[in-house]
Amino acid sequence: MSAPWRTALCTASCLVTVFLVYGVVQVQSLPCEIQGNAQLPMIVCFITASNEHYDYDSLRTGLCSHIVLIDLIGVGKDGSLEVLQTSSRSLNRFCKLKQHFSDVGDEAKFIISIGGVAQKSSHFSKALKTTESRSALSDELISFVIKHKLGGLDIAWFYPAQFGGAESDRTNLIVFLRDLYLRTNACAITLSLTVGVDPKDIEISYDVPRINEVVDFVNLLTGDYHNPTSPTHISPLYGQGPRDRLNINYSVMSYIEAGLNPRKIVIMGSCYAYLYISKIQKNDTFTTTKLRTVMRLSYLSATELITRESFRTSWDDMRHVPYGMLTKGITKKWLTYNDVESMRRKADYAQHYQLGGMGLFSVDEDDYGGRAGFGRYPMLRAIVSILYPELDCSEEETEEEIETIICPYTGFLTDPVEPECYYACEEGM
Which part of the chain is the GH18 domain (predicted)? Predict the structure, then answer.
């Protein structure tokens, strides 16, 4: 035994001593103050680092319990930590937002996510291949979180043992998470995992019972089930029948049956849409449609498109989601999206089954400027209105309330309604 004991010291409210006794890992915790109620539902708000136009100042306190910055850092070709968005100013804005929340007493956890859609699975696979490489990556991640005074770490690997990964990824991920969980606990840092919801993911990528033991919560990417080859709903709550597996209910129940504690499950709602454009082809005997393109739109862009082109919108009673249709000449358009009502039903589902909470992927694609006429952050507020109805987020601030927050410091401050406009502020005025 090379090291009989090891102590992890961090500047945190809790100190956890991790040591080895006859080869067995034991954890001894010192008493620490518990902040809040662990049973309260989480509202996890993702921000994508690649969105340079997002106004971080528009996100008000009291709406999110956890705020996650994703697509900023990942694993490089050599298995070490690398910045995916080299020109991004998102980390600086993210840290300023964290400081503002802290200054006004909001205890939301600010979390950095490693990986994301721009991350190559093979790079993750290499980084977690050996004991030395796993330890090196763990060191880098802990150092990054402590350096920037963040409150959590999220692992977003899409997906272990797939897309260039190795068969051993499934096991290596657990070994990595187990060590990282001990270290994050020692530093009073939350550890979460963001996972896929394709039925094959559980079998190929995730050892669910063991994951349940080594993370604080799991974000289920239930916001996007769309098929790029044929028009399908982006985020249906239920399926058309027992054989329909691409829906939120099936995904949640699959993870629960596989061994994941429901209180650790956070279902993610999407703030974007897909527009399917097809060409109608006719001949003497029948009419067919051929898919020409699929476009990804933000929630605001989808809302504006519906109004501008006069889409006929409908509601799918079986799947609990809206959709829009438009036919002009030989062009047929079909739009799948979430709206306030579908988001409320998802939040109600999370509450009914006593899940850990609900999240939004991502708040920078919500209507944060209130341009569509439904107030600022309508999708996020829809979730809050169900999980925390006492907050009454349906109403905008009164003019008097805006006056009290308009100049919290000296400098330039974005207008809460028109983000492209700025106020030259003096503190207290």
Answer: 41-390
Residues 69-107: tens digit of each pLDDT: 999 999 999 999 999 877 679 999 999 999 999 999 999
Q: What is the pLDDT of residues 367-382, one digit of tens each?
A: 999 999 899 999 999 9
Element at 422 (helix H, strand E): strand 422-425
Q: What is the DSSP letter of 391?
A: G
Strands annotated E in 186-271? 190-195, 217-220, 265-270
Same-domain pairing of 84 and 146: yes
Q: Which residues contact 256 (CB under 8 A, 6 or more apart)?
A: 262, 265
The CATH number given to whatever domain includes residue 91 is 3.20.20.80
Cα–Cα distance measured from residue 425 to residue 419, given in angstroms and rounded to the nearest whole number: 15
Q: Is the Cβ–Cβ distance between 134 and 141 less than 8 Å?
A: no
User: Cα separation of 401 and 407, whole Å?
Assistant: 12
CB-CB contact of 272 with 335 (8 Å): no
Distance separating alpha carbons of residues 417 and 426, to the nearest angstrom? 20
Whether the upstream peptide bond of residue 159 has omega within 30° of 0, thus cis, is yes
Is pLDDT of 420 > 50?
A: no
> Is there a single domain that holds both residue 314 and residue 420?
no
pTM above 0.90, yes or no: no
Distance CA 73, CA 156 (A): 10
The reply to whether 387 and 416 lie within a common domain is no
Question: By the 8 A CB rule, do 155 and 114 touch?
Answer: yes
DSSP string, 251-291: HHHHHHHHT--GGGEEEEEE-EEEEEEEEEEE-SS-EEEEE
Give the span between the Cα atoms of 269 and 345, in whole angstroms.
11
- The reply to whether 32 falls in a domain is no
How long, in residues, is the chain? 429
Q: Print the domain residue range for 119.
A: 42-391
Q: Provide the token pair at 270.
A: 């999407």
Give the ranges where 297-412 is alpha helix by DSSP (H): 299-308, 340-352, 378-387, 399-405
Same domain, 308 and 406: no
Is the residue at 16 inside a domain? no
List all residues 6 or more positions away from 389 whose beta carbon is below 8 Å from its beta carbon: none
